[in-house]
Amino acid sequence: MNMTFLQEMFNNITQRDALLRRRHGYNTNPDHADLVGACRALLESDGEASSIALASRALAMYERLDGSERRRFFARLAEEFAADPTRIDQAYAAYSESRDNATLNGLFEACEPRRQELFRRLNLASDGTYQLVRMREDLLALRREHPELAGIDADFAHLFASWFNRGFLMLKRIDWNTPASLLERIIHYEAVHEIHDWNDLRRRLDTRDRRCFAFFHPAIGDEPLIFVEVALCKGLPDHIQPILAGEDSDVEAPEDADTAAFFGISNCQTGLRGISFGNFLIKQVVQELKQELPQLKHFVTLSPVPGFAQWLKAQRDDDSTSEAQREALAALDEPGWHRDPERAEALKAVVRPMAARYLTQEKNDRGLPLNPVARFHLGNGAELHRINWLGDISDKGLEQAAGLMVNYLYVLNDIERNHENYTANATVACSSEVRDLARKARKQQAKGELK
Amino acid sequence: MNMTFLQEMFNNITQRDALLRRRHGYNTNPDHADLVGACRALLESDGEASSIALASRALAMYERLDGSERRRFFARLAEEFAADPTRIDQAYAAYSESRDNATLNGLFEACEPRRQELFRRLNLASDGTYQLVRMREDLLALRREHPELAGIDADFAHLFASWFNRGFLMLKRIDWNTPASLLERIIHYEAVHEIHDWNDLRRRLDTRDRRCFAFFHPAIGDEPLIFVEVALCKGLPDHIQPILAGEDSDVEAPEDADTAAFFGISNCQTGLRGISFGNFLIKQVVQELKQELPQLKHFVTLSPVPGFAQWLKAQRDDDSTSEAQREALAALDEPGWHRDPERAEALKAVVRPMAARYLTQEKNDRGLPLNPVARFHLGNGAELHRINWLGDISDKGLEQAAGLMVNYLYVLNDIERNHENYTANATVACSSEVRDLARKARKQQAKGELK
Amino acid sequence: MNMTFLQEMFNNITQRDALLRRRHGYNTNPDHADLVGACRALLESDGEASSIALASRALAMYERLDGSERRRFFARLAEEFAADPTRIDQAYAAYSESRDNATLNGLFEACEPRRQELFRRLNLASDGTYQLVRMREDLLALRREHPELAGIDADFAHLFASWFNRGFLMLKRIDWNTPASLLERIIHYEAVHEIHDWNDLRRRLDTRDRRCFAFFHPAIGDEPLIFVEVALCKGLPDHIQPILAGEDSDVEAPEDADTAAFFGISNCQTGLRGISFGNFLIKQVVQELKQELPQLKHFVTLSPVPGFAQWLKAQRDDDSTSEAQREALAALDEPGWHRDPERAEALKAVVRPMAARYLTQEKNDRGLPLNPVARFHLGNGAELHRINWLGDISDKGLEQAAGLMVNYLYVLNDIERNHENYTANATVACSSEVRDLARKARKQQAKGELK
Amino acid sequence: MNMTFLQEMFNNITQRDALLRRRHGYNTNPDHADLVGACRALLESDGEASSIALASRALAMYERLDGSERRRFFARLAEEFAADPTRIDQAYAAYSESRDNATLNGLFEACEPRRQELFRRLNLASDGTYQLVRMREDLLALRREHPELAGIDADFAHLFASWFNRGFLMLKRIDWNTPASLLERIIHYEAVHEIHDWNDLRRRLDTRDRRCFAFFHPAIGDEPLIFVEVALCKGLPDHIQPILAGEDSDVEAPEDADTAAFFGISNCQTGLRGISFGNFLIKQVVQELKQELPQLKHFVTLSPVPGFAQWLKAQRDDDSTSEAQREALAALDEPGWHRDPERAEALKAVVRPMAARYLTQEKNDRGLPLNPVARFHLGNGAELHRINWLGDISDKGLEQAAGLMVNYLYVLNDIERNHENYTANATVACSSEVRDLARKARKQQAKGELK
């Protein structure tokens, strides 16, 4: 009765649709073929009166497909929604003759996969953007086993890079006055250090020395894209547990702090993988904090070292590792080693140097650091500043990084230079302390001397 | 002193810049060559740390260029920021061999003009989106005389179609509680019936029987993209002057109205020409109004007929026009004819039929109606409903349309069909009254009989 | 450094204060005498430049007093901040001579207790209103044992009735999009059916068939004054447990519901006892719901019956109770009786009639119903509609009301009449079903026949 | 059809009302007697179910009364809604016997004029607060000629002082982004220097060196209570015309200013006369500005001197005025004197000293400065800092103050002391320059020497 105009139009279309179905003996649950048909109809519509309704219909169908039907739909997208080879050949012929902008535009249009126009039109539907992000999430899960779907992903990535341009993102502060529905999502999406419940969240957010900021996109409403948690401290923090526990810090008022420590950065939307905002987020948050608290001097992370424990394990079997190192590392096998001060001290003398080596010298096949967190912050222009022994003694921290955490330091005047050196020469900016540690690792390796 | 982080980074870059300038003897006012250099630097940056600053710098330079320098800059954009022919040739070779998605993506990337990536990066700057829209405004002004710039415009259009996707637009109601800064823009942008001052605006907006809605884009803040003015009436209105004067209507409460009359639709951003939102705007406004006032029965425009007077003039010299018609039309040459009831009545008998013929039968080279307003509403699925004699007796109304105005009617159940018939067969949906008028025009032409 | 103007003024005053203290050998912890001094200073200030600072100082002192010092402070307020008897005598003499408005005003001013002006001035402090509400909370706790403080309470009540005038209250909807800090208060203040944690809250609020509204006062920000929880149902609900559990109702969309059931009304501020908003809240919420969901037909409560079990116990020893009734009621002593269908059925036949009698015929010394919840809703014009057997089988429900709950029905056309009959003649409006039950109770009493 | 609950209740009551009217032969236009009846009904209702409706009805009746009926209504209020003498006598008897808080409260209640309870109940109506403010506006207009209405005004004043307590006021910034409907009110209410139209307003508000703040009360929505206009300057301004014209100042960015000049303070609600917020407004605005622009050093007004010209005229006939002074002052009679530099200079030598004398030494019957603006700022703790020759050369400025304007300076550390000296001893804080001028005035008077 109170039905809206667009709903009515949608109903009109759906009714006709239902009619067609009945005539042609379609069953009521759509399958991938129905969706392919709906997509064709959307592409053939001339983008005006009915596109919104057609887009909504197609997305609603997708929603109802199960996993295998979705896979089949993607396969059809890959095969049938590419571009017209004949048209490309003609456009190329024209281009290679005149080599001007007009024919270039012609060629560009001819070889744009029809999927891109399809996605643009699906985006007309209300909430379309978010549904497309989730559609890509499905696709990414399939991609590993179905490399033939890579082409579709390239189309998503091309459009998302435009749609999620930093100029369209909005930074919002998250705190205890934020709507519960959004905080619930923060609890859900926290990826670095799990938030167990509302009390846990309150401990992290609702003190005068905490800040949290997230990026949002206007078309996907209250769904955060990425967020960062910050603790205001005196001096650079070296242990994560007191921060997570919300223990009384020595910072009574925000104005007392000299350091902003970024202790958790979480991407929220798997479907936006590869569309990077983390770098912009950190820098915009630094700006916000500077504005609020001009006395802040240090901007630093307290970051995990995922993959280090695995690498360390591999080293124990490696020829280059000295006997002394190997013996020392054996202590890691004994549960609870970190609670035994003597044992821990002995390990520290071997593990920190090896971590310095791991982070500064171990490279992947593109010549960049093996550790992904290091790649992220070094690429942003930060400096690898300090390796913190027993920085994270949670089960997860012990398991993935032998309890280590790292401070990456963002020094205003060095960011540009660090960044340029990193991208041009893969140079890892690090403090002299870290450099000395890495040197010590080499010595231990060579001479078998520890300490 | 309170300078922000990003400003500082910007200053760092600008200082280096200034240094370079001095070394190389540049003068302080940038020219198109400086800007081309800045654009290259932006494209070469790897999109991370310094891109925002570089983008801001380039846009600031553009801002300071004068008209001829801007033209030179566009010329360079056209010539030097297309795509790499060798890379295209290679990509095409690969594609023509395998014809798969991977090589198609390769070709698509190779032939995307570098301008597109440039514009995407300029868009990183704060307020970049709006500055790009204004840059295209400049370009459109030059395009007529410089057809070689058409390629750049295609790149703008391609990106803007993505960025200004309807899914990203926000509808807001405009009324007397709207911030003055925004109302000022409404006064400025009104294109159909000029708003003279604040009192004039108040008459149009601030009564219970008026509504105004605009589309906004989150990245360009308070700048409206397009807006529509609505009067709530009893019955379909046929004269614009009482509406503009805010004369007491017989609609005491909005709940009394049965008709929503769209009496002005104004595009605000020249730089977004061809990126169409008007259709979506009308339909979303219909939806809003239905929600607020479920009793509304008719959604109709009161639209101008630009170009009709000019066409009419040409008819007077045309062979097909009968002597009787010609004689009647001569009255139009006498100033003030519309205030003379007898003369006006005689004219009406000739002019309205000819207008019906003009609107329904005169076509452009694409086979669509000659009149642009008719094309817009018929394309949206509306029906050409009534031709109103002396509908607009302002100087402008008399001059451009012999005082005529037209009602286009949006009938929910017909929109789809009308639209499809129009796009498929260029069929003009019209009321029987208009059809009869057009028939009468033919008779008058043939037999020379008036009335 | 960034200290604000008013803070500086406050500091100036506090420094002078500190100086005075040191001179006069005061210790650093204020006692009631210090506070009395601060109150005098505030009353003697001429209400302009320094009043805000003086008010803040006095409230800060009060905050630091412990319970016994606060009691002493109230005692001093009672004794020393009344009115000047001589001035009253003179004003009365003048009044009794001329009996005009001028001398009446004089008398009124003379006998206004100075406490009222004191409280008005304390209210100048930022957050003063809320601190005064909490001050009265302390006072009410003391009042029972210290009847001499009743005078102060009258002053609070007089002012609060003005300040918390319904015209100043703001109704806000509470839902899952409400800031967490406010929801936390809702959890805290819920007085009828305890909310255990955030998941419990979510079940009550975050479904399409739930609503929650609260009154706020602009000067005390996010502290709710009173709130009501509503469930949208088909038909009048008779059991509270499914509602609290958020069990799937048969109301799929809010538009399906025909009934709004108020299942919890909680006053949040003890310090506002006696300042009644509950009546206005219910009526304004009815209005809001009608606006949103015009199809709603019934507005009803599902209310507890506190005190009934106690009364019932007393009846068992009362001569008027028949032997048969007494025997039946004995079953209530056996734990878990409500899970034994046979026993429960037997009890039902006795207990419901007695509840009807209790609610309609048992009166307090003002001739009004003994049950406070009944007094509230009957006073608002509702009708005692139905007595629900095993309506609340929680421990609390069994303990306070033998598991009974009551529906009070708000019938638009009867509210006025019910209300008038109630206030004029203490008439209890009730359904014929309840009336029949009460009659049956009398019969059972008289004849000893059950059923 | 969509009628709301409270409306329906209101209609119910009004229908009964209409019935009564017809029965008793009332005419349809209410007169003061009807309103008195409605007020009685409201007072007799027990404040619950129907009070809101009864209050709305009474206020709607008042709205429809013409001036003379309103006067009659006030007369009835004065006569019939005072207090019950017998009850007062009894309460006084009880009080004079026991002299305790209980009997004091009894007396206080007995002698509270029933008007106060009436106004509190009228305030239940939606928008009641604002309507009561306007009702007092009417009353104030009548009071001069009808001193017998003073008693009613005392009741209004008593309640308004509670309702408009500073703790309930909200400060909002007004600028070009403020809703037009509110800006329109600012144009309307500006009392010091008239705002002619929207362009004029824009010049005053919409530059980086302007600020405007207003106090609002939550219950009267968008109606401002008082507002102040501020110009940010370098140094203390001495002329108003450049400020009003929005002339380019030497303040390019707000951060460049060292002075905030308050150049217009306008009370908006005549009905709130005597309920003072100006003092709080100035101090809260100083605080806001300090927060935004910590570099500001001076807070000063540029104020008119209403009444000075009139006083000056009287002096010309006064014996104490020397012949030389008299001769000089004669130049004031010649129109355009301020445009003649020589004449103006001669006048300046006489008029400024006399102004200093007028402002510092001429007292009213309460021993306070004759000039109301001086009383206001001196009472707030400001210092009379400078007398500016030709500070306001508008017609109004010339007419009321011979073109003079005055700077009152708010010096943080002196405000308290100035204020205390002023209230205790009526001491006028002034700069040595002003003191010297006043001394010169005495000399000129005595010796007849000018200069």
UniProtKB/TrEMBL annotation, chains A, B, C, D:
It comes from the Bacteria. GO terms for molecular function: malonyl-CoA decarboxylase activity. It holds the Pfam family MCD. Residues 167-410 form the Malonyl-CoA decarboxylase C-terminal domain. It is an enzyme of class 4 (lyase). Keywords: Lyase. The keyword Lyase applies. One of its GO terms (biological process) is fatty acid biosynthetic process. Residues 81-164 form the Malonyl-CoA decarboxylase N-terminal domain. Its EC number is 4.1.1.9. This is Malonyl-CoA decarboxylase. It comes from Halomonas elongata (strain ATCC 33173 / DSM 2581 / NBRC 15536 / NCIMB 2198 / 1H9). The lineage of its organism: Bacteria, Pseudomonadati, Pseudomonadota, Gammaproteobacteria, Oceanospirillales.
